[in-house]
Every structure is written in structure tokens, then in C-alpha cells.
Amino acid sequence: MQxxxxxxxxxxxxxxxxxxxxxxLAGAAQYFSAFEExxxxxxxxxxxxxxxxxxxxxxxxxxxxxxxxxxxxxxxIELQGLDPYSACLHQGTERHAALASDLIEEFRAPIIDxxxxxxxxxxxxxxxxxxxxxxxxxFLNDSGRQKFLTAFLRxxxxxxxxxxxDSQPKWDLLNQQVKAFKQFVYNPLELYxxxxxx
Length: 198
Description:
It contains 7 helices and 4 strands, in the order H-H-H-H-H-E-E-H-E-E-H. By secondary structure, the chain is mainly alpha-helical. The protein has a two-stranded antiparallel ribbon with strand order 1-2. A two-stranded antiparallel sheet has the order 3-4.
């Protein structure tokens, strides 16, 4: 009830944004409550999502990975000539390219979250070697960033089967979805189809 009250107070005259916010928060809370069950390395504990700053190594990897992916999507959005500050799900400001935040949502779990599971469960990241604690948070250090980015690039070069049944690297999937969103912007009758995990 406190959440509803705070969101209503914050969004006030724009109840649609408030309802979207509540839906996202509720969905994220439910998703991340089950996240720890997918980790099988006792050196990595996850009791919930924390960011700004991330509170532990798992959150540090999630935050870093989301930012890397967000930056790449922002580049693709700008290359397609779309306004990155106009979005559907997130509120844009002069400092927040909300369209990148919209489009990243469909890729967080299949690209970044699964990469974190892979790195943790296969012992590729070391909790005592690849992270640094500072400013009340936990962050990847140089070796951690190098390991994460190497694995991320390898993951993005992996092939997947797209909606048409064709095989292509995951890099192409991001570009394909940004182009599909552009089509939707110019022709709203052609509905945008988000990527679905298969």
C-alpha cells in the first residue's frame, strides 16, 4: 500500500505512468525473488536487486551488463534516426534516453541475466578476485570487466533462430528489433512484436 501511495503522489496527474511503474516494480520484484534459485555457486549470494550502487557481485554484474547492452541499443536507435528520448514505457528527460530503456526490457533476461548465471555457475567469475567494494557499493574491477565483456561478446556472436526461422547472431537481433520499432513508429498499424524467448 505504501508503494501505491508513493507512486500516486509522485505521478499525480499522470496515473497511466503510475500504473506502468507499479506493474514494472511488481513484475521485477517477483522475477528477482526467484533469481537466487538459479545460482548454484555458494560464493555468490543474491537476496534481491540493488542498484545505484549495486550491493553485491551479482548485482554488480547485472548493472554492468544492463548498461553495456543499453549503450549498444542507444547507438542502434540513433543510427536508425529515432528520437531516443521519446518512448512508450519509460519517461524520457533530457538526461534519460527512455527509448533505450524501453527496448532493453525484452533483452535483459535472455542476454544479460543468463550470462550472469553462466559466469557464476561455471565458476568463471571469482567473488574475491573480480570485484571491488567502494562508495557503499560493489563493482567489477579490471579483471572482472574483462571477463564479463569477453563472455558478453562471445554470447552476442552466438546464433539464434529468429521469428522467420533463420539463424543469425544475437547482434543482428538487436538491430532487427530497433528496425521493427522504427516501422511501428512510422506505421502504427504494423504492431511492434517484442522478442520472445524460445
